[in-house]
Design a protein that fits this description.
Structural class: alpha/beta
Domain ABC transporter: 22-251
GO molecular function: ATP binding; ATP hydrolysis activity
CATH class of the largest domain: Alpha Beta
Protein name: ABC transporter ATP-binding protein
Number of domains: 2
CATH topology of the largest domain: Rossmann fold
Strand content: 25-35%
Keywords: ATP-binding, Cell inner membrane, Cell membrane, Membrane, Nucleotide-binding, Transport
CATH superfamily of the largest domain: P-loop containing nucleotide triphosphate hydrolases
Organism: Caballeronia insecticola
Helix content: 25-40%
């Protein structure tokens, strides 16, 4: 596939200008057992964006998706899809949505062609063999179109689930852990497909345990924990605000202890004394690093190399969830 990726700053500006397509207002869900899976969730999804919803197991990700898709009834609150209420205008709202669930639930004895074509008909769409063919070819399923689902590998079955979700040409696609249990190559192929769908105007909502998926693909990140939205932020802004950086100095001679003049910097010394590490926020003034290096020199320390690293999205996610407990 030929892909065109826009610069991060331009992309962020475009995403911010997009109108809202899904609105969740004070959404709560309490199951019959008394378990409250969602707690007063307020969230807006923008048309044409890739929104990644992250959270630990049991955080409420699947319940939130199932509620928006009309599979689970909300206990309180309201959800609209392009202005259509999911309860009072269910048919119009659901017709706009494609869902790829976590579970590999497929019609084992049906052929790939039959099950994808049937999914299109479920939403009242007229037969369109050309569209079904296009979907199957985009997912590398065309050669398998006459195979029964039961004969396919797990990765191919996952592709069939995506094909079924795309059969009725939805404007919104929910991907609930779409790459769970698939190999790295197939995961990359799916990422390419998601980007192509986005380029065609499809809004993508993705839940994943693979943080690198969100880091590579998402325009915005939402973090949910214990049924509550902890944070929603532009991905690059989130990395800028919450990402920590580390400056590591590899010393020429090991240190037994950190010199007193360097104490204000909160440096950490490696176990062998051969490295000093300075941890700072991404928005700290560059002048502070210059001052640190000057004080290192004044303390008579010599270093043979230095390197900087920045917190990954996974580091930020773990920190946010820990704080929310």
């Amino acid at each position: 596939m030929t892909l065109s990726i826009e610069p991060d700053c331009a992309l962020s500006a475009i995403v911010r200008a997009m109108p809202t397509i899904i609105t969740l207002s004070n959404l709560s869900k309490t199951y019959g057992s008394g378990f409250r899976a969602l707690r007063d969730v307020n969230l807006e999804i923008r048309r044409g964006e890739i929104f990644a919803l992250l959270g630990p197991n049991g955080a409420g990700k699947t319940t939130l998706i199932s509620t928006v898709c009309g599979i689970v009834n909300p206990s309180e609150g309201k959800v609209t899809v392009a202005g259509h209420d999911i309860v009072t205008d269910y048919r119009a709202a659901r017709a706009m949505i494609g869902l790829v669930p976590q579970e590999l639930t497929t019609d084992a004895f049906e052929t790939v062609w039959a099950t994808v074509s049937f999914s299109r008909g479920l939403f009242g769409r007229p037969k369109d063999p050309a569209h079904v063919e296009k979907v199957l070819k985009s997912l590398s399923l065309w050669s398998k179109k006459d195979n029964k689902i039961m004969t396919l590998s797990g990765g191919m079955k996952r592709r069939v689930l995506i094909a079924k979700a795309l059969a009725h040409e939805p404007e919104i696609l929910f991907l609930d852990e779409p790459t769970a249990g698939v190999d790295v190559e197939l995961r990359r192929d799916m990422w390419d497909l998601v980007r192509e769908l986005k380029s065609n105007g499809v809004t993508i909502i993705l839940t994943t345990h693979y943080i690198e998926e969100a880091e590579e693909m998402a325009d915005r990140i939402g973090v949910i924990n214990r049924g509550e939205i902890v944070l929603v932020e532009e991905k690059h802004e989130l990395m800028r605000k919450l990402g920590q950086k580390k400056l590591t100095l590899q010393l020429e001679h090991p240190l037994a202890e950190i010199p007193a003049p360097l104490a204000p910097y909160g440096l950490t010394r490696s176990a062998d004394g051969a490295e000093l590490t300075y941890t700072y926020d991404a928005h700290d003034e560059p002048g502070r690093i210059i001052a640190l290096l000057r004080h290192v020199d004044e303390a008579g320390l010599r270093f043979k190399d230095l390197q900087t690293t920045q917190s990954s999205l996974e580091d930020i996610f773990v920190s946010l969830v820990r704080e929310a407990k």
